[in-house]
Amino acid sequence: MFFRTLKQLAVAFTVTALFNSAAAAPAPQEPINLDELLQQLQQGQFSQSEDNKQREQRFRQQEQQQKQILREAINQRDRLEQLAAELETEFENNETQLGNLEDNLTQSMGSLKELFGVLQQVTSDTSGKFQNSVISAQFPARAEELAELAEKMGSSSKMPSINEIEKVWFALQQEMTESGKIAEFTTQVTAAGGDKQQQQVVRVGTFNLVSDGKYLEYNPSTGNTAELVRQPAGRYLSSAEKIQQVEGGTVSFGLDPTGGSILGLLVQAPSLKERIQQGGIVGYIILGLGVIGLLFALERFVSLMLIGNKVKRQLKKPQPSNDNPLGRVMLIKDKYPQADTETLELKLSEGILREVPKITRNLTFIKIISVVAPLMGLLGTVTGMINTFQAITLFGTGDPKLMAGGISQALVTTVLGLVVAIPMTLLFAMLHTRSKNMIHILQEQASGIIAERSERGE
């Protein structure tokens, strides 16, 4: 087969050489007659014959060399086949020996294998706990080291070294020790606006992180510490400031034992301002009525207190004064000294009726507000429930939060109405009682004046 290939190559080389020689030879002149044409054909055949002889001579010279190369290639192939067979036999022997050694290792390890399996499991679980622990904000890269160690134990049959076992023990001991400490350290904190800066952070065990009087959150996926976008109520922030300022002793602190879950729910709860905004236009109208009623009640309270003090002073003085209702009623007696009893009674009644509007001014408006406010709240609730049921019609009942949120917003107006109505009712009752007592004093003194005039007339 080799010689056949050489022959094919020789034929290809011959054809190529013929084409090359034909291309390189100068173009023959156009024959003038048939004799010249015959002569040119003879010359071309002779030159081609000479070239072929030269090529055949070169091929014969290279034949021995190609045979030598072929023999060397065959010898090398035989050596490589023999080597492959030896290596395959050695591989099979090694596989058998490795299986025997693994069996011996398993028998030798005995209960230690279960122990190291437990160690691997504990290392993996501890890595997961460290990743979510706020202590990792102070000691970063702990979880990654234990995760690499657990992966190494699982992928390799080699037993862990003493140093690796001590590393796991140290990590567990450190977590247990730091969980009972209030530590202060410096780290990069991302503010609510997105700015990053180095700040002093106080860590309260495994529960909370605070800085500059604000609560922080630790993101285990990125390892960043950031301020909560929404902070809890002011009393919790004041406790966060105290724990940063105190150097010894005890201090009250808003602790989240869940590690941030309760705090996350707490900051999601709407504030008082947001609750009021949920009431919408009806809620603002109710609050406006409440403010107006409160102003009227405050004005009536001050006025009745001043009038009551003047009336009390008038009761102690025999001379009537024109700066209080009782004095003005008593002046009627002096204005009509000759009037009979019936006429004086009518005049005194007229004077009392003249003072009553000044004493009971704006009390009716306060009473109206106390009645209208809960009705307005009911109106807002009904309107909100209508909107909620419309949303349920459009989106269905698949999302309970949608229903709960709509009902909560609807009930806000009822709460606002009751918040306004209850104090307005109490204020109206108090002010009405004061004004009624004052009118009773006027009627009582008028009756005394009539009785005195009647006795004197008899």
UniProtKB/TrEMBL annotation:
The keyword S-adenosyl-L-methionine does not apply. It is a multi-pass membrane protein. The lineage of its organism: Bacteria, Pseudomonadati, Pseudomonadota, Gammaproteobacteria, Alteromonadales. The chain crosses the membrane at residues 281-307, 364-386, 406-431. Residues 50-61 have a biased composition (Basic and acidic residues). It comes from Idiomarina seosinensis. One of its GO terms (biological process) is protein import. Residues 1-24 form the signal peptide. Residues 44-64 are annotated as: Disordered. GO terms for cellular component: plasma membrane. InterPro entries: ExbB/TolQ_transport, MotA/TolQ/ExbB-rel, MotA_ExbB_proton_chnl. Keywords: Cell membrane, Membrane, Protein transport, Signal, Transmembrane, Transmembrane helix, Transport. Residues 337-443 form the MotA/TolQ/ExbB proton channel domain. It is found in: Cell membrane; Membrane. PANTHER family: MOTA_TOLQ_EXBB PROTON CHANNEL DOMAIN-CONTAINING PROTEIN (PTHR30625:SF11), PROTEIN TOLQ (PTHR30625). This is Energy transducer TonB.
